[in-house]
Structures are given as structure tokens and as C-alpha cells.
Amino acid sequence: MSTTTVQSLHVRDSLTMLRRNLLHARRYPSMTLQVALIPVFLLLLFVYVFGSALGTGIGQGGDRAAYLAYLVPGILLMTAGTGSVPTAVAVCTDMAEGIVARFRTMAISRASILVGHVVGSVLQTVINLILVTAVALAIGFRPDASPVEWLAAAGLLVLFVSALTWLSVALGLLSKTPEGASNAPLPIAFLLPFVSSTFVPVASMPSWIRWFAEYQPFTTVIETVRGLLTGTGIGHNGWLAVAWSVGIAVLGFVWSRRLFDRDAH
Amino acid sequence: MNPTTPAIEATGLRKAYGEQVVLDGIDLRVPRGTIFSLLGPNGAGKTTTVQILSTLIRAAGGTARVAGHDLAAAPQSVRAAIGVTGQFSAVDNLITGAENMALMADLHHLDRREGSRVTAELLERFDLMAAADKPASAYSGGMRRRLDIAMTLVGSPEVIFLDEPTTGLDPRSRHTMWQIIRDLVDGGVTVFLTTQYLEEADQLADRIAVLSGGRIVAEGTADELKRLVPGGHVRLRFLDPAELARAAQVLGVGLRDNEALTLQVPGDGSVHTLRALLDVLDVHSVAVDSLTVHTPDLDDVFFAVTGRPDHEKVQTR
Questions:
Q1: Confidence band of B300 (pLDDT split at 50, 70, 90)
Q2: Cβ separation A97–B54 shorter than 8 A
Q3: Complex ipTM tops 0.90
Q4: Which CATH homologous superfamily contains domain B8-227?
Q5: CB contact under 8 A, B72 and A107
Q6: Residue from the list A9, A16, A105 with its beta carbon closest to the beta carbon of B103
Q7: Which residues in chain A are contacts of B102 at CB distance < 8 A?
């Protein structure tokens, strides 16, 4: 086979697998929707319950609207994080099914099975991001970003979501049960988004945790998105965010491939 | 593929999981267009053999060619020539039967028209038209197994692996499945079937290999294997010792039990031999109270072929 036919085989099979995963998501949407509701809930909670106090605390003019502007980028990243849970569960559940054993005995692109999951999950998380953004706009989020800045923010988010999704696929492959698969990404879904600049600036944290919070992937992406959308300083966070994203994507990809090919041809 | 090339040819296949040896060097040769049955109890290594031959897992040792392609060197060519229906159904339970079929058509790169033609034809052939738009999770065991085979056939495979295709099915579905398997071979494909039931292998297979503890302990046709089993007999029961004596005299063979008033006559219990037996008794007006048929089952075959101390392979030629 020539290179082009091999490539078109990969693309064609990946599209078939993507259709299959989107069909699953459409038939059984509950979990995907649930993970979109968590960030929406946290957004409303932090803006309307804690917003005034936190707005004063972060010292940006001290009102609720200011805190909303500060919070939204972090909530978007939390949406990216919680999306990893259904991905890991879907992959783990799928691998236990006979149909995947069938796929492995067919003359198809082997990568397509995982690529279908990744693209499907990224699309679902992007839909969730749009939903969360719509809610934020509805309650008064008014970023001053130009179209180029919006595009850059969206591009970085998609890159970061892709990276987290490959990592979640690996976690799903690693897990022996769907329960295990729903627990494995919890650090990505909750721990990292909380210990970051999502809710409060890292400068307000004690120094031993500040160092971690400042340089961990979520903060660098949050600060970059925040800078692009609301005009705060980005500094070194821009390239750090891209470096983290690419690094996590490569790690997740290589790890997934290795786990998927265990004991196989 | 050259018509004289065997569909499956394996030499010295080995597989171990840690300390546990699952396959301890097995040789197989399956001519094209035949049904070959690998017979054995749970844990004998049947599924492992299918997994190796269908490229799902790698053998630890040995070589094999499937449909003329080397398993290790050209797994993708093997995959293009085979179809696999696993013990645990290889259907996507979350989507409908028709969607499962369309998925297979897409993965075999059939164009839209060809895909829907093949799909509709197979759904019709396996009596799944009415259920085509229901999710596979709502199917009965027999329906799911039929869908499974229909999906396997979308790619027109040369060699089909059926791993315990009737395990868990009710008798009616089992007979439907048997007919399906016979029809497959009439179409020219080669079937590699695993089963725990001697009856099933007997009904379907041209040749049978008995797998026990990771080794092939006997190989031959169903009749050859059954000859290894001394247990096949018809047991006649009488009400009157005089009738028993007359029967023993008329038939001239059998193991007589004067206490139980029974006579054990060797025989395979087929309708043909039973009729012949009863005809003889009838002609001589021997009154038989009742009759039971004992056919050799897998246990008997296993006992016969594995009861040997040195575990040597028994060839029946």
C-alpha cells in the first residue's frame, strides 16, 4: 500500500469510529451532561454566593462583576478537566466489550479505535465549553477580547482539552473497572483546577503551595486564557501553557498506544 | 489463495500467562472448505487458540499460517481474510442491529450502496429484519449470536473462527446456529469451531481435535474419536428372566445382568441401529420392557484419551 492509501485508511476508519462514539453519546447523554453541570453549578455558586466577598479579596475593584470576569477562564478549564471523567469511563467500558476484540481482528487502522474516542470526547467537551461560556455571558460576563484573542483562547483550550483527553484515554485503558475509570481522572477533574488560579490568585496562597499552583498546567492555561479574554498579564504563562499541553498530549498518546497494544500484534 | 494451501496450518503453538502454561505446543492443519472443531472443556486453551490464530494475541512460540499468510509477519493480511465470532458476543450493545451492520460495512470500506445491499441481505438471511432498529442490548441470546455472525460475514471472510457459538443458547437456537454453520461451509468458507459439546462437533465437524491441558490429545473424525470410547451401548430391560435369556441368545452379544434383568448391547444409539435391533427382537417375539440409549459423551472421550498415564497424543487413522 502506498502512503496515501494508508493515510486515507486511517482517516476513514477514524471517522467511522468517531460516528460510532457520537452515536453512543447521543443515545446515552446523561454522563456527558452531568459533567457540564458541575462547572455551571460552581460558576453560579462562586459568583452569587461568594462573589462579592471574593471580589473584594482579589482586589479588582471589589464587586461581583469583577469576580465573574476573573472566575470564568478558570471555570472553562474546570469544564475541560471534568470532561476527562466520561472519556475514561467510556474507554474502559468499551475495552471490556466484545466489539473491540472484533475491531482488533479486522484489517482496519488500529489507531482509529482510540482516535475515534479522542475526537468524540474533544467534541463533547467543546460543546460543554460553549454551553458554559453561554451561561457566563448570560449572567454578565463581558470580555473585551478581539476576535483574534477569542480565537487564540479557543485554540489553546482545544489543544489543552485534546491533551487531557489522550491522558484520560490512557487512564481508561489502565483501569480494570468503570468505577476505577471514573475515579482515576479525579485529580485532573477537581484537584488541579482547585489548586490553581481558578478561584483566587496564586499570590494569596502560602508559599509552599504557591510554587506548585503557579506552575502547574491548569494555572498556566487559565492565566493565558484570562489574559486573552480580559486583558490581564500573560507573561511566561503563554509558552508554558503550550508546552504543558503538548507535553501532556505526547505523554497521553504514547502511554495510550502502549496500553492498547499490550500483548497484541 | 492456492486451493491446496490449508486454510490454517500451525506448528508448535505455545502460550503461557506467567507460570501457567495455556498452550503447550499444538499443531493444527485445516483444509480449505471444511469445518474443524477444537473440542475441550473450559480452561483447555480453546479460546486462547482462537485468540492467537485470529491475531488478537501473540503466541509465545510456534508458527502459524492462516489463509496462506504468516501470522507473525503479516497479521494485517490475515485479518483481511478472517472473521471472528467470539464466545462473548462481539456486537456493540449500545446501538441497533442495523447500525452494527452499517459499522461493519464502513470498516470494510464498502461504498454506501454496496454496504446497504450487503447489510440488508444479511439481516434478511439471519431473520433480523424485524429487530434491525432495536438496540442490540434488547436482543435475545440467539438473536445476538445471529447478529454477531451476520457482522462477521459482511467482509466475506475466507476463514471464520467461531468460539463456542452455541454456549448459552436454548436447543432451538442451537439448531438454528448449526444450520447457519453448515450453510457457511456450503458457501466455500472454512470454519474453525470451538465447542465443549461432542454432539456439536459430531454434528458439524469434518475433523475434530481434542484439546486438554493445552495439548491436543486426540485428533480424527467424529467416528474415529467415538471408537476410542467403549461406552456406547443400548441397555434393554426385561420383566422376565426367560425373555432376557432369549434376547441374549437371539442377539448373541451383550453384557448380561441377571439381577437387574438387563442386557447391554454395544451400539451408537442411532435410529438406524436401534430399528435394526428392535426388528431382530420383534422377529423373535422377545418382549422388552424398556430401553435406554447411552451415547458416548465428551466425558467418555476425555476419559478415553486423557486417562493414559503419559498423556501421549492418540492418532486415529
A1: low
A2: no
A3: no
A4: P-loop containing nucleotide triphosphate hydrolases (3.40.50.300)
A5: no
A6: A16
A7: none
Retrieve residue A58's grid coordinates.
482579589
Q: What's the pLDDT tens digit per position in B135-161?
A: 999 999 889 989 999 999 998 999 999
Judged by a CB distance cut-off of 8 A, whether residue A28 touches chain B is: yes
CB-side neighbour CA atoms (13 Å) of B209: 22
* A 181-220 near B (Cβ less than 8 A): none
CATH number of B233-294: 3.30.70, 3.40.50, 3.30.300, 2.120.10? 3.30.70
Contacts with A92 (C-beta within 8 Å, 6 or more apart), sequence order = A172, A173, A175, A176, A177, A178, A180, A181
Question: Do B159 and B171 touch, CB atoms closer than 8 A?
Answer: no
Number of structural domains chain A divides into? 1
Q: Say yes or no: do domains B8-227 and B233-294 share a fold.
A: no
Burial tier of A67 (Cβ tally within 10 Å: 0-12, 13-18, 19+): buried
Coil, helix or strand at residue B236: strand
Nearest CA in chain B to A112: B107
Residue with cell 448373541: B252
Average pLDDT over residues B294-307: 66
Mutate to test the interface with A, among B57, B92, B100 (most CBs of A within 10 A): B92
Query: Does the residue A255 lie in any domain?
Result: yes
Whole-model pTM?
A: 0.80
Angle between helices A217-230 and A237-260 (to 10 degrees): 130
β-strand partners of B63: B11
Flag whether residue A26 sits within 8 Å of chain B, measured between CB atoms: no
Per-residue pLDDT of chain A (265 residues; tens, 9 = 90+): 455 576 788 899 999 999 999 999 888 877 777 888 899 999 999 888 888 788 777 765 668 888 888 899 999 999 999 989 999 999 998 888 888 889 999 999 988 999 999 999 999 999 999 999 999 999 989 998 899 999 999 999 999 999 999 999 999 999 999 899 989 988 888 888 888 888 888 888 898 899 898 889 999 999 999 999 988 888 889 899 999 999 999 999 999 999 998 755 5
Residue in chain A nearest B145 by alpha carbon: A98
A30 touches B at CB < 8 Å: no
Q: Is residue A265 part of a domain?
A: no
**Residues with Cβ < 8 Å from A81, sequence gap 6 or more?**
A164, A188, A189, A190, A192, A193, A218
A209 lies in some domain: yes
Q: How close does chain A come to B203, measured CA to CA in Å?
A: 27
